[in-house]
Q: What sequence folds into this?
């Protein structure tokens, strides 16, 4: 049923580019702490190479993915076909957090559509690429993007969003360090 791939070929690229939502899962090291699973969208996933992807990380209520990647780098990205032929694709790898103050941020950011105040970009070097049938995934039709995140960012303004990040995205729910600010190091 499932198949392993050495890299992202043209068929996998087409599948990835056709999906409107993807899911990201990470976990802290050891047997304590919380596993995190987050849905993502907003045209925020890009293929950088045959074994490299990246996605835009918008401000959220927590910063679990960032904290887990800083601790151990483990991540899996899952895409499901909700329309068309059934398929699930899992991209396992090692993730890196690229923040706006990092030298490579501007180069990576240019590969994505314009969007306000990105918290970070998550780059993933893929170690395992595997698909499975997706027969149990229900069909859903895409209706459009939700405007609430961008409206919230606009209402808060850049300074308000940064203040929110400093208050809510500094540590994970398990107390692991997440976002950094160079002026505080």
A:
């Amino acid at each position: 049923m499932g198949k392993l791939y050495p890299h992202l070929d043209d068929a996998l690229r087409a599948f990835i580019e056709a999906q409107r939502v993807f899911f990201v899962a990470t976990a802290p090291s050891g047997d304590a702490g919380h596993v995190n699973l987050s849905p993502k969208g907003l045209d925020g996933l890009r293929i950088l190479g045959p074994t490299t992807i990246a996605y835009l990380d918008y401000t959220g209520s927590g910063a679990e993915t960032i904290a887990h990647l800083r601790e151990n780098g483990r991540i899996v990205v899952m895409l499901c076909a909700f329309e068309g032929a059934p398929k699930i694709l899992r991209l396992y790898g090692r993730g890196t957090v690229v923040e706006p103050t990092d030298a490579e941020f501007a180069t990576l950011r240019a590969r994505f559509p314009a969007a306000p105040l990105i918290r970070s970009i998550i780059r993933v070097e893929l170690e395992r690429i595997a698909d499975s049938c997706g027969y149990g995934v229900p069909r859903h039709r895409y209706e459009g993007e939700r405007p609430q995140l961008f409206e919230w960012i606009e209402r808060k303004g850049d300074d308000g969003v940064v203040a929110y990040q400093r208050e809510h995205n500094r540590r994970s729910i398990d107390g692991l360090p997440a976002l950094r600010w160079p002026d505080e190091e």
User: Anything to note?
Assistant: The chain has four helices and eight strands. The radius of gyration is 17 Å. The chain has a mean pLDDT of 93. Helices lie at 10-18, 64-71, 105-109, 148-168.
